[in-house]
Design brief:
about 350 residues; 3 domains; four-stranded antiparallel beta sheet; seven-stranded parallel beta sheet; Rossmann fold; alpha/beta
């Protein structure tokens, strides 16, 4: 692109009222112009525009609540209100809000509607998908500003993963399986942050055990997945244990980000020197070079001012076994610490 055109884009962004990240906004504008020069088809242009509008609107809806942790609840839209797992999902929604979580569902009926009913309208988000049948918004979230309607499954999925701090899956059909495998695949490949995945069923239910048997008997036996991949999820049969699993994940661990090849784990409390030594001994197999070191915030994190004071555990891991990194987070939460207090939610900047 010519320098005069670049200057015109910069001037346009400067006059637009853009608050921050001018360079990224300029890149968005330039990409749009380049797409037009590529002679993209009308169908492609419509897809790009609609997808970007959906992403922009969803981000705007979530932004005022970025300081609250959120749990996504997946499950069948066809589950009857008389079913035991419906009652369990309603209880789960209510209990999660009692622990100061907000609840995100697909906005439909069945398990989604039950979890939404338990959480209540004030503490709920609905990420609804437009379908020719079945998926209308449930009565709890219908008409609320936190109900977001998506045309595309992929933009909807991005928002589930981007905004969620834990996933709870009840029995469901193709959609529930798709959402569960999407979360696990993204974590297994390092394309999404590791978060708790709780597979929940009634005390006498065998849905997830049957599903896990398929994974072990076919996928693992054929070496299509690794034994450590089973660390990315856990099966439960009551709400108490599932919630405790989520709470334990955030006991000491706060969040993490990547700075080039380094995994920077933000902690709510400093670990003792012996705790760091034990982590290095136990998880030597996941470290590519050097060792884990407890530090202060890195220079690259300076824009995240609200969590600058949190201690960090920094390592350069082998990026091929995220199931082991999941166990590392568990070990951090079980480690001995010094005293400190942290914010409840990582920055999204």
């Amino acid at each position: 692109m010519k320098e005069s055109e670049m200057a015109a884009v910069k001037a346009l962004v400067a006059k637009s009222g853009c608050i921050h990240s001018h360079d990224l906004v300029e890149e968005l504008v330039l990409t749009a112009l380049q797409t037009g020069r590529d002679d993209a088809s009308v169908a492609d242009l419509k897809l790009f525009v609609r997808a970007f509008k959906e992403m922009r609107y969803a981000a705007k809806v979530f932004q005022p609540y970025e300081d609250r942790r959120k749990v996504a609840v997946f499950g069948s839209a066809r589950t009857s209100p008389k079913a035991a797992d419906y009652q369990m999902a309603e209880e789960m929604g209510r209990r999660l809000v009692g622990k100061d979580f907000m609840v995100i569902t697909g906005g439909g009926d069945g398990i989604m509607g039950a979890a939404q009913k338990g959480a209540g309208r004030k503490n709920s988000f609905g990420l609804n998908i437009r379908l020719p049948f079945e998926q209308s918004a449930n009565e709890t979230i219908e008409g609320d500003k936190k109900l977001i309607n998506f045309n595309y499954f992929f933009t909807r999925k991005v928002n589930f993963v981007k905004e969620t701090d834990a996933f709870v899956l009840f029995p469901g059909g193709f959609g529930t399986q798709d959402e569960g495998f999407e979360c696990l695949t993204l974590m297994q490949t390092g394309k999404a942050n590791i978060t708790p995945v709780a597979l929940l069923d009634t005390p006498d239910g065998r849905y997830w055990e049957t599903w896990e048997f398929f994974l072990k008997n076919d996928l693992l036996r054929l070496k299509l997945i690794s034994p450590s991949d089973f660390n990315l999820f856990k099966i439960f049969h009551n709400c108490d244990e599932a919630i405790e699993h989520i709470l334990h994940f955030y006991k000491v661990f706060h969040s993490y980000r990547w700075v080039r090849d380094k995994m920077v784990i933000r902690l709510k409390s400093r670990l003792t020197l012996r705790s760091v030594e034990k982590l290095n001994e136990t998880f030597r197999d996941v470290i590519r070079t050097g060792c884990m070191e407890q530090t202060t915030a890195l220079r690259e994190e300076r824009e995240e001012t609200e969590i600058t004071e949190l201690p960090r555990l920094v390592l350069t891991p082998k990026k091929k076994d995220f199931g082991r990194l999941r166990l590392l987070i568990d070990a951090i939460n079980d480690a001995k610490t010094e005293s400190a207090t942290a914010p409840s939610r990582p920055s999204r900047k």
